[in-house]
Amino acid sequence: MTNVLSIEDELLDARIEQLKANGNKWCPPKPKAFPYHLFPPEISTYIKEFSKSTGSIPAFTAIGVLACGSILAKDSSIETKPNYFDYSNLYLCVVGKPGASKSAPISMPLKPLSKIQTASFQKYNKSYEAWKIKVIRAKGDDKKQLELEEPESPTMFAITDGSIEGFKDNLCNLHERGKGPCAIFQKDELKGFFGSMGQYKGGGGDEYELWLSLWQGYDMAPKLKSGPARICPDARATVLGGIQPKVMQEHFQDKSDGMFDRFVFAVDKRGAQRAVKTDYLPDESMKAYEKYILSVYKMDKPDNFRAMGGTIDQAFQEYYDWCYKRGTEINHGAFKKWERNFHKILLILLVMWKRETVDIEITYKAIDLMKYFVEHWIESLGISKEDDEDNLKQIILDFIKEKSPVEERIIKRKRSFGRNVTIIDEIIGELEDEEKIFLTKTGSKNKKTLHYYPEFTC
Residue 64: is its pLDDT beyond 70? Predict the structure, then answer.
């Protein structure tokens, strides 16, 4: 079996010994630290050093990297059973409080794709201007012919703004150009993304159902007011963004339609992180990452990876059994979606590791990575509004203790405490009732100043 695996790193060498000791049954340890070794060296180094530079957890940066990978692998599929295909798109979300460094880790890993997209737009704008001049100068039949030869629209990998109709149009454009019909729908905060659903067309839109379908891929035929009919087979999307714990409660966990189950989460329960100016991403790490991503983008990739037979089937079944057991332990049926997301992540890793066929090494890497994020998913399931407010209460008390005396308006304007002034008022009232702080009023407008009780010890 060692010859089949052909694994070089120590952790996966240990896996071989574990397989032998357990009668070839897979039972990996529960992951505690982020498993950097599951990514190619250029990517793992980038994740480690970028996370350090931003003060964010490595899982946040890995979420951004997976979003990038979903585009790198979008022209391929993975066949896990005869005529049963999955694709590389993922629904990805980082969960953290205000100030937890959510934005940069999910947007910066997309920079190599942004450069490709920018170059495509520049080429299109130049071609369009030249075409427009030709049309203006042409006459008669020549003019009619030229009007039909409008330059191809630019490549759009990531869309951060715009309507759902525009997103559908972009997917159709990708399909008509022979590209995988997948793009990233990125939002810094997913609150607005979910909050806007159902508002389109006076509440008569189909946005929510559309996003449920775009996760697995479906044949999309947009309704057009004019022009030729369009169809986009296997249309799909990667959703990427951040969300705060309380907002997550409102938009996810009270629903039973499977949207929550579709997401891969990375959860950071810490509060706002202090910026350190001396911590920065080394230039060589960013350049090495960009160079590697561009090399993966340019290389020829298989149209389809067949993940069937022998040790591959064994590894898949062991993972499926683990999913069922873990889902039963938390009394949740999300394990079926964990299986599908594993297929998607396996496809991404195969492309990132520049493989031409499915091998057992990358299969186990995908299993370990998915298992790591399943634990984050389960952690997100346990987030409660009460816990979040208790944490905020302690954070505000610590701030008052450090800054005392401090004006109340400063606390209400501090972004890392959130924007819900009502909750902050309630917390200040509770701290005063508990005699952990006291208030004084000064000036004609009775400005409130908060003081920390010196005799109180946390």
Answer: yes
Residue 382 has pLDDT above 60, yes or no: yes
Q: Where are the alpha helices (DSSP H) in 81-225?
A: 103-107, 111-137, 140-147, 164-176, 190-195, 207-214
- Residue 306 CA from chain centroid, whole number: 26
β-pairing, 232-243 vs 91-95, is: parallel
- Kindly state whether residues 223 and 273 are assigned to the same domain: no
Q: How many domains does the chain have?
A: 3
Q: How many CB atoms lie within 10 A of CB 24?
A: 12
Residue 149 and residue 134 in contact, taking contact as beta carbons nearer than 8 Å? no
Which of 207, 240, 273 corresponds to the end of one domain? 240
- Kindly give the pairing relationship between strand 406-407 and strand 84-86: unpaired
User: Are 124 and 154 spatial neighbours (Cβ–Cβ below 8 Å)?
Assistant: yes
Specify whether 204 is located in the same domain as 306.
Answer: no
CA 104/CA 97 separation, integer angstroms: 14
Tokens of 65: 């990297």
- C-alpha–C-alpha distance, residues 300 and 350, integer Å: 13
CA distance 132 to 143: 11
How does DSSP classify residue 272? -
Give 116-131 as a DSSP string. Answer: HHHHHHHHHHHHHHHH
Do 83 and 121 share a domain, yes or no? no
The residue type of 232 is C
**Residue 430, pLDDT above cutoff 50:** yes
pTM for the full model?
Answer: 0.75
Domain presence at residue 219: yes
- Whether 64 and 86 map to the same domain: the answer is yes
Q: What is the pLDDT of residues 318-373, one digit of tens each?
A: 999 999 999 888 767 788 899 999 999 999 999 999 999 999 999 999 999 999 99
Q: Percent helix, strand and coil across the chain, each rounded to 5?
A: 55, 15, 30
**Among candidates 371, 376, 105, 67, which has minimal Cα distance to 248?**
376
pLDDT in tens, 222-258: 776 656 778 888 889 999 999 888 777 776 655 566 8
- Do 230 and 129 share a domain, yes or no? yes
